[in-house]
Amino acid sequence: MFITVKLLPAFRCPCLPLPNSEGGLYVCMNTFLAFGREHVERHFRKTGQSVYMHLKRHVREKVRGASGGALPKRRNSKIFLDLDTDDDLNSDDYEYEDEAKLVIFPDHYEIALPNIEELPALVTIACDAVLSSKSPYRKQDPDTWENELPVSKYANNLTQLDNGVRIPPSGWKCARCDLRENLWLNLTDGSVLCGKWFFDSSGGNGHALEHYRDMGYPLAVKLGTITPDGADVYSFQEEEAVLDPHLAKHLAHFGIDMLHMHGTENGLQDNEIKPRVSEWEVIQESGMKLKPMYGPGYTGLKNLGNSCYLSSVMQAVFSIPEFQRAYVGNLPRIFDYSPLDPTQDFNTQMTKLGHGLLSGQYSKPPVKSELIEQVMKEEHKPQHNGISPRMFKAFVSKSHPEFSSNRQQDAQEFFLHLVNLVERNRIGSENPSDVFRFLVEERIQCCQTRKVRYTERVDYLMQLPVAMEAATNKDELIAYELTRREAEVNRRPLPELVRAKIPLSACLQAFSEPENVDDFWSSALQAKSAGVKTSRFASFPEYLVVQIKKFTFGLDWVPKKFDVSIDMPDLLDINHLRARGLQPGEEELPDISPPIVIPDDSKDRLMNQLIDPSDIDESSVMQLAEMGFPLEACRKAVYFTGNMGAEVAFNWIIVHMEEPDFAEPLTMPGYGGAASAGASVFGAAGLDNQPPEEIVAIITSMGFQRNQAIQALRATNHSLERALDWIFSHPEFEEDGDFVIEMENNGNANIISEAKPEGPRVKDGPGTYELFAFISHMGTSTMSGHYICHIKKEGRWVIYNDHKVCASERPPKDLGYMYFYRRIPS
């Protein structure tokens, strides 16, 4: 938790307790770090800091009036802490009182606050500044903390056109595109149009906003949120969510009776006309009475606004014993040896989050008296505690242009980002991400000479293509599409959704089939030739992560998602995908590098005028990203076109989007020997031919030794791809004497390992697995929608939907996006 103090630095809470938790919160008056009662003693012993401010919020039932109800609300002058708590400060049943005092360790001598008589003036000023400060989370997310929506100034005199428009109870579609989610009804002319994805975490092409700009009609209501109690109303003119006190009248103008509308949590209609088969309903198990789960391992994570991708990944990761042992199992040691500012330490933040998820302290069932009171009031609702991962998200996403935003992200990309952070911040020799790492054998064959080359690369997940052509219900799909189009034309309710049913075997077959290699240079021919590549597992990981490649682009370059059903099994056997290496009768391609060609045309000259990566025009990057292209591809497009603008970069994307490394992160190795020629531009290469540090970091993050990475880069003129080939082709690598002497003479000598370098750390074994978790995505693209996670615990499936954790009744294993399998011991 952060509290910004005008006169002092912000104080941060490296542990999870809040002032209203048992024991309260202790704030170090020197560092302004905050601790729960169980950790403040550790901080005192470690730092010697002895003065802490103890903050405690007391919660009491309100005094009842003569009629039995609570006394009328009045401002509570005893509340002075502006903190992020779970309690509703406007509750009719409870009142709150904040208490603050200084505590002097080790004797726990207490001084009540305020205390002008006993404390020096500077101490009093510092205490007052802490107590009166505003939480920066309220400043960062003002909409999240808004108590009441304003009434729109257009509501009272809203003009509604008498154009005969009537809105059906279901079957809505944007009037300008084919989208059926995130639809908004304009309250002036009855137009149904899609919103922008950042309005409410749903996908859209912004046609509702375009309509406002064309016509000036200010108010719109989101279809699917209409209930007898109200709906989501947005004012384009006022640029915020608003209240419409005459909403029932405005909706009745278009034939909508609010009293008979019932919106579901995800914004879809729950009525007899629309069958409950949409992915939102099926994945979230809507309409079922799910039993809440409490205790260790059943703690949810609160949604911070499009943070569900992070929550789902972290729930799956911390269900793995190796991650539990590495962080939560080492909690005392990690906390004891954390830096003075633990908020900036990855291992401390991972441990803190893991402890919150696994301890059970933040997932407790309601007490019996609360249940009885809820039943008496006929308003029983399951209570879900959950924890807020604000500090963890702030740390792991810092300096990342996408994860640091409040926009929705790709869970697969965040998973790889997390693995990279774990690799860089390993705890001694222990690295829990080793359980995901495996080697892929790539076999490339020259189609003309039939000669082959075998290489290996490191990977952390299996990307499985969707074999749409193998659908087993093609006749049903054709019939459904015809019926759907007819219903749209006649404005009738849409038929029940029919999904393509894809066998997993077809997807595995598509994964293993040869693919063409563009611009393949045959070392046997010393020229470009046709080439094909096949991939196999050179090793099987202990935990196999499978991503279903559901996202693609249509002919109009609009991102699309395959809404398909794949029969993902509980038991998976992929032993048939084991690599076999060079086979008898196969002849290897000569180990000759392609010649370095410096092109003369303007396009390639532009690509060689490299810019500093820190100077990439982020506005152009975001323009391209909003079109649905992968972020890293957008960064490369802007980089390789020399910051010439989004239009020029877009042309680069069109030309290169079929390349296998299209969405790979931007690296600076140059092209073959061109790196050394261009190194002087960056000042990277001097007499010692030192490779760029960012390329070294990429190779070491794969598990190779730093000195091995540097020597491989030097031998290949700083080419990342060729350096990896060099490492795999030199398994007998030994440090050369000149290299070691040179490294001992520079400032990095202390990080050279004395042990002989080994290959990447892999935990090979049989390729038989059991499913234990999967992450599902709802929405039209990875930049919109919602993620939830299902995990199998203690023999039954559990659904983790943000802070809500319940026993799953029908886990939708066929609709997942990422699947987590654990190896079955042989």
The fourth-level CATH homologous superfamily of the domain at 1-61 and 81-137 is: Zinc/RING finger domain, C3HC4 (zinc finger)
Low-confidence stretches: 1-11, 65-77, 85-91, 139-147, 198-202, 263-276, 375-382, 598-609, 669-688, 735-757
Which geometry do the CA atoms define? globular
Mean of all residue-level pLDDT scores: 78
Strand content: 15-25%
Distance between the termini: 46 Å
Give the helix tally. 25
CATH architecture of the domain at 1-61 and 81-137: 2-Layer Sandwich
* β-strand number: 30
Q: Pairing-aware structural class of the strands and helices? A: alpha+beta
Q: Could you estimate the helical fraction of the residues in percent?
A: 25-40%
> Largest sheet, if any?
8 strands, mixed
CATH topology name of the domain at 1-61 and 81-137: Herpes Virus-1
Active site: 308, 786
GO cellular component, one term: cytoplasm
EC number: 3.4.19.12
Family: Belongs to the peptidase C19 family.
Keywords:
Herpes Virus-1; alpha+beta; 25 helices; disordered N terminus; Helicase, Ruva Protein, domain 3
